[in-house]
Write a structure and sequence with these properties.
With 302 residues, this protein is α/β, with parallel strands linked by helices. The protein is built from 14 helices and 8 strands. It has helices at residues 2-18, 22-26, 47-57, 72-81, 84-97, 112-123, 153-166, 170-175, 188-194, 198-201, 209-216, 258-261, 267-272, 290-296, and strands at 31-34, 63-65, 105-110, 129-135, 220-226, 242-243, 251-252, 276-281. The strands form 2 sheets. A 6-stranded parallel beta sheet has the order 2-1-3-4-5-8, sandwiched between helices. It has a two-stranded antiparallel sheet with strand order 6-7.
Amino acid sequence: MFVNAVWSLLGWWVLVCTAKPAWKENATVPLVLWHGMGDSCCNPLSMGAIKKMVEVEIPGIYVLSLEIGNNIAEDAENSFFMNTNDQVTMACDKISKDPNLQAGYNAMGFSQGGQFLRAVVQRCPSPPMKNLISVGGQHQGVYGLPHCPGHSVAICNWIRKMLNTGAYSKLVQDHLVQAQYWHDPLNEELYQQHSLFLADINQERSVNETYKKNLQALEKLVMVKFLKDSMVEPVVSEWFGFYKPGQAKETESLQESALYKEDRLGLQAMDKAGKLVFLTSDGDHLQFTDEWFKNNILPYLH
């Protein structure tokens, strides 16, 4: 009788220790946001509105909208002029020190924030990122800057001049964010040798197995392409496609690319495992309705 009581007590103790608390079963997954070029963490018409909508739709969720700098003005300025690698390091530091993110989080990047957050998951695996949602991110870079956001026309005119005259010079690479994901299909060797950011995270110079392993740890990589995008060239970059080698007219899909066929980044393996999700929005760059967002994006935030 005593032995039976002991076994019953041990069974109860094992059950208590292994059972997940109810609050953990029902807990929301925190979300990290990263804005695009010329925007800021807390603009009430953009990132602030997204943050508020997510908080309304998923009660109790913790949302961190990354501010790269000491204030909103610096944040917007840094989206043009702060070295991208330094921005990623700053983002990793903020995420690693946030007590609300230590059990893992989802991430959603808008425009260039999409590829910046991919750098975070490849370089900074702790705490773990669960799902990465790239909304109009340019994962194979851009070869053109046709339009500018907001009131940044003068800045963008200067940026275009710099990109056209010396995108891969050390001075421009060090100080111009858009140059760091400028991908010239007519000068692939120059791009591979001198791109400080994109060529590194896309494994253009060598294969970093840690990058590959960390990216493959994602549950889902969700990529949104805007069907009427007038800002991103080529728009297939939003789905990890790009121009076919040696020219700037015909494009190829991710699945047709050497990056995929050689599986340097693990994307082929992720695709076969059902981890890649390709979504479209029938609008211009970053233009979508609340209904579209709720139907297409919210399911990946739970």
